Amino acid sequence: MPYDPQRHHRRSIRLPGYDYTQPGAYFITIVTYNRMPLFGEIVDGEMRLNECGEIVRAEWLQTAIVRPYVVLHPDEFVVMPNHVHGIIWIIDTNVGATRRVAPTITTNPPRGPDAGSIGAIIGQFKSITAKRINSLRGTPGAPVWQRNDYEHIIRTDKALARICAYIRSNPQRWPDDPENPFRNPL
């Protein structure tokens, strides 16, 4: 089926006109394809990661190592059975110029998020983890993540504290979590 921009256009969840490469804190949620619990299980309110979950955890932590303009804090991140919550801090205002790709003359406009943006960081994270998980499972090319992710710009210390508490308490709330395919209906 040929590409039809009217039919195949996805509505962006991003704030129009906002530069997602600029310094700040961003709350991220990424969900597995069809909400499949791929990363382990919650036992007595604690997440027990399996091999796929360990891949996700390791790659999240690698994000700050390969991107000097990113800072992560361990209590601002959790891998759940079928989703991930975390906070990414972009810190360096001077790095933006070196992260941008030089313009080229082309008849096709560039596709995808700006280099160094939250969208690019999450896209790379999803790509790397999907390849490693599919290699482990012997399922090359199988979808691991849903197409979109959720990101929220954290603007105040109060919002940051609330989001950190939400992330830390997520495993304890798993039995009632809407992302839990095995939750107890009321």
Provide a descriptive summary of the structure in words.
- There is one protein chain.
- The protein has 186 residues and is of the alpha+beta class.
- The chain has a domain at 18-95 and 137-173: Alpha-Beta Plaits (2-Layer Sandwich), CATH 3.30.70.
- The chain is 31% helix and 18% strand.
- It contains five helices and seven strands; from the N terminus they run αβββαβββααβα.
- The chain has helices spanning 5-8, 51-66, 96-99, 118-137, 157-169; strands at 24-31, 40-43, 46-49, 70-71, 77-79, 83-90, 150-154.
- A hairpin with a 3-residue loop joins strand 5 and strand 6 (83-90).
- Helix 2 packs antiparallel against helix 4 (118-137).
- The longest helix is centred in the C-terminal third of the chain and has 20 residues, at 118-137.
- The protein is globular and about 40 Å long.
- It starts with a helix and ends in a 17-residue tail after the last helix.
- Mean pLDDT is 83; it is low at 95-104.
In angstroms, what is the radius of gyration?
Answer: 18 Å
Report the CATH C-level class of the domain at 18-95 and 137-173: Alpha Beta
Total strands: 7
Note the overall shape. globular
Number of helices in the DSSP assignment: 5
Low-confidence stretches: 95-104
Mean pLDDT: 83
Helical/strand content category: alpha+beta
Instruction: Give me the CATH superfamily of the domain at 18-95 and 137-173.
Output: Transposase IS200-like
Question: Biggest sheet, in brief?
Answer: 5 strands, antiparallel
* Euclidean distance between termini CA atoms: 43 Å
CATH topology of the domain at 18-95 and 137-173: Alpha-Beta Plaits
Q: What would CATH call the architecture of the domain at 18-95 and 137-173?
A: 2-Layer Sandwich
Secondary-structure element order, N to C: HEEEHEEEHHEH
> What fraction of the residues are assigned to beta strands by DSSP?
15-25%
